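ok new one. same drill as before - structure tokens go in, u give me an amino acid for every spot. 363 of them this time. try not to just spam alanines like last time pls lmao
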């Protein structure tokens, strides 16, 4: 049987092919956003990750610590993310009440841009750069890179490092978005707090040499903000105005607010919904689940119990379709020869794994 490098056991935290000593140190260190019971024996890592701060922050830090936040709050991210979501929702309600609607071309363009950005995340930074589940010729690499820029997320290096850590130390304190800490933390809260020291330690141990030596990724990282600002916000917001005379307001709102907000939440849903609600036909010992809703909105990334069992499978699901738009696109690129050496689990291996670890009632 092929090595299952990321299988983790809910009770033993056995991490095959991982750093056993490190994984053992993760035992009994389950934390939520706040420590839930006073009786819990835990050492707060709060001060460990609190570095130079202005005097102005001192009372705020004292308050955070007194109510039991596990790590310091990143207030800039809290303000930016909250304001962005509040503006988008209020703007939507205002337009709904005043009956202001976008042109049909703007709606269609929004859907297309949403799909492109989604493909950059799912087929690009996730299945290609992070898991190397297939090989891509340079034209496809360029397409993935441009699509990923439309999504407006972190650098490829940051995304890949965090996700590799997530797979290797899933559902421990070293998991950047540990779902044991609740829905909000795994969805977006983890971006609003400093990383737990175990996450930082794990991140330093991850092999990132393939990413740091990739010339295309290096180029993208060098001009990261140029790519992000131009392809996520500037150009998409100009197109509706210039090509079909959409109003300025609606051009900016549809792309910079609505499309961006939806695309971020679809990506985050994989870390929250697909770790909390669904079934576990492939491995009943882990938290990731099969979630059809997430697969629909995240282009096939919701078959997450399978994905954590076979992270190297380019389909990120046992079946290519339905609800796996990314796989359909990768199969197309494979047909024209731009994607090749696509890795996938054999039916025999899947059957064997289900027999040993799966929840047979749910398959
Ligand atoms: Zn996951
Ligand atoms: Zn993954």
């Amino acid at each position: 049987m092929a090595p299952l490098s990321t299988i983790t056991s809910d009770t033993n935290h056995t991490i095959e092919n991982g750093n056993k000593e490190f994984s053992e140190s993760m035992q009994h260190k389950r934390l939520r956003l706040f420590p839930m019971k006073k009786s819990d024996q835990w050492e707060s890592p709060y001060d460990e990750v609190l570095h130079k701060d202005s005097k102005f922050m001192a009372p705020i830090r004292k308050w955070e610590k007194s109510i039991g936040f596990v790590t310091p709050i990143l207030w800039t991210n809290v303000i930016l993310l909250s304001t962005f979501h509040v503006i988008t929702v209020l703007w939507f309600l205002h337009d709904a009440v005043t009956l202001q609607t976008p042109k049909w071309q703007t709606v269609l363009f929004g859907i297309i841009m949403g799909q492109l950005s989604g493909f950059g995340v799912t087929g690009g930074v996730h299945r290609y750069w992070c898991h190397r589940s297939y090989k891509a010729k340079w034209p496809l690499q360029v397409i993935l890179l441009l699509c990923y820029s439309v999504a407006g997320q972190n650098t490829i290096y940051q995304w890949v490092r965090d996700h590799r850590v997530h797979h290797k130390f899933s559902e421990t304190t070293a998991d950047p978005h540990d779902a044991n800490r609740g829905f909000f933390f795994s969805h977006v809260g983890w971006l609003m707090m400093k990383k737990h020291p175990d996450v930082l330690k794990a991140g330093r141990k991850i092999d990132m040499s393939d990413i740091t030596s990739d010339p295309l990724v290096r180029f993208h990282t060098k001009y990261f903000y140029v790519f992000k600002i131009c392809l996520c916000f500037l150009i998409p917001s100009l197109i509706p105005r210039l090509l079909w005379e959409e109003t300025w307001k609606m051009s900016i709102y549809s792309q910079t607010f609505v499309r961006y907000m939806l695309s971020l939440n679809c990506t985050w849903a994989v870390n929250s919904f697909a770790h909390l609600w669904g079934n576990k036909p492939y491995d009943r010992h882990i938290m990731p689940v099969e979630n059809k809703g997430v697969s629909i909105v995240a282009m096939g990334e919701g078959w997450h119990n399978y994905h954590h069992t076979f992270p190297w499978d380019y389909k990120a699901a046992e079946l290519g379709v339905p609800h796996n738009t990314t796989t359909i696109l990768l199969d197309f690129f494979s047909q024209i020869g731009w994607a090749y050496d696509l890795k996938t689990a054999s039916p025999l291996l899947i059957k064997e794994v289900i027999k040993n670890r799966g929840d047979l009632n749910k398959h």
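The longest strand covers residues 135-136. and btw Residues 1-30, 35-39 have pLDDT under 50 and may be disordered.
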